[in-house]
TrEMBL record:
InterPro entries recorded: DUF2283
Protein name as annotated: DUF2283 domain-containing protein
Annotated region (Disordered), positions in chain: 82-109
Pfam assignment, any one: DUF2283
Length: 109
């Protein structure tokens, strides 16, 4: 599975696309968070409207239904944004991160 993180430090916003499902509706959750959901009311993307107020993944999961397959992407996306914000962002005002999650494999002994 892949996800995308788009960040604009100039506007102090970021978006985490969790999956490629079509967006049916956007839900404003608080003053700094918008969650895009599909027709099954599952999160497709998360928009942060203030990089100084980055929520914990658990808080987003409490407020919106995040498919269990997308939880790892949400956590990695929030960590990416937080690291970028702390280190004052990337060389440009807009950055995009594409990542692929991998299922860990056990090394047989």
């Amino acid at each position: 599975m892949s996800f995308h993180v788009t960040q604009n430090t100039e506007l102090d916003v970021a978006y985490i696309q969790l999956n490629s499902n079509p967006i049916a509706q956007s839900r404003e959750i608080g003053q700094t968070l918008i969650v895009d959901v599909d027709k099954f009311d599952q999160a497709v993307g998360v928009e942060l409207l203030s990089l100084s107020h980055i929520p914990l993944p658990e808080d987003i999961e409490k407020l919106a239904h995040v498919n269990k397959n997308d939880v790892a992407q949400l956590k990695m996306g929030l960590q990416t944004i937080q690291r970028s914000s702390v280190s004052s962002g990337s060389p440009t005002n807009r950055s995009r991160v594409d990542a692929t999650t991998q299922t860990p494999t056990l090394d047989p002994c």
